[in-house]
Specification:
- This protein is α+β, with helices and mostly antiparallel strands.
- It has nine helices and six strands.
- It has a six-stranded antiparallel beta sheet with strand order 4-1-3-2-5-6, sandwiched between helices.
């Protein structure tokens, strides 16, 4: 098709290719989700429905885009690892970020009623997305270790904080003051001595986050020699070697 005299404006579009042969992490974060969770009466410290909705949106995203091979979610965020060899959208950063973010967000809205059948969506939620490139396998492992360690730190704090408020009768200001400067051992002691709670008995979903991973269960081959894979949801340790040793393809494809 012949271009018009106005087509010159395309010259102002700058290319934004991502460096080839590097690991690509795509990370989503909820925008102003403290306000969103309050407006929709999320259960504190953890709302299982909200976490399951995040997992579901992430699962649908991975089903739609096979180059996403690993996802890790906590609270209102999700991180995704793409195949190192991916050429999705010619590795155009803006195209990948906007497309994946919009797909996740629209899925979250579309399936809201599936997980919150009695709660009407008050206003549209939004997520921001970004891509960070990492050069080595160790960087990827350290990234996911960082996110899972963050999950534990945040959940321990929130669990103690809301126990002090909901069961201990403290105001939110007093609960924050009580926890200021405390270390993990002291937080665990507050939970056990005041409320009879053993932190290690809390659901692993809350303590370790959600892991969505493409598995190769039997190494069978499909048509055109593509490996048969399935996406599974786990709540497991991804800091230690065991998870990665069982799935070497995550860091080699």
């Amino acid at each position: 098709m012949a271009g018009s005299k106005f087509a010159y404006v395309r010259n102002f579009e700058l290319p934004d290719p991502l460096l080839p042969e590097t690991f690509m992490i795509f990370r989503l974060d909820g925008h102003s989700f403290h306000r969103f969770s309050d407006a929709h009466n999320f259960v504190k410290p953890n709302d299982k429905r909200a976490l399951e909705l995040m997992d579901y949106a992430a699962l649908r995203l991975m089903e739609e885009y096979p180059d996403i091979i690993l996802g890790f979610g906590e609270s209102d965020e999700y991180s995704f690892l793409l195949r190192r060899s991916t050429n999705m959208y010619n590795r155009r950063q803006s195209k990948i970020v906007t497309t994946l973010t919009s797909f996740f967000t629209s899925t979250y809205v579309m399936y809201w009623s599936k997980f919150f059948p009695s709660t009407q969506l008050q206003y549209p939620p939004s997520f921001d997305g970004r891509i960070v490139l990492y050069p080595t396998e160790q960087h990827i492992r350290d990234y996911f270790s960082w996110r899972q360690a963050d999950t534990h730190i945040n959940n321990l704090y929130n669990t103690v904080f809301w126990a002090l408020v909901q069961q201990g009768g403290l105001t939110t200001t007093d609960a924050h003051a009580t926890l200021r400067g405390t270390i993990s051992k002291e937080k665990n002691e507050i939970l056990f001595s005041r409320f009879g709670m053993n932190y290690n008995s809390i659901d692993e979903r809350y303590r370790k986050g959600s892991v969505l991973v493409r598995e190769e269960p039997n190494k069978k081959k499909k048509a055109k020699d593509k490996p048969f894979t399935q996406i599974v949801l786990l709540h497991c340790d991804i800091i230690k070697d065991e998870f990665w040793a069982a799935r070497p393809y995550l860091l080699t494809e």
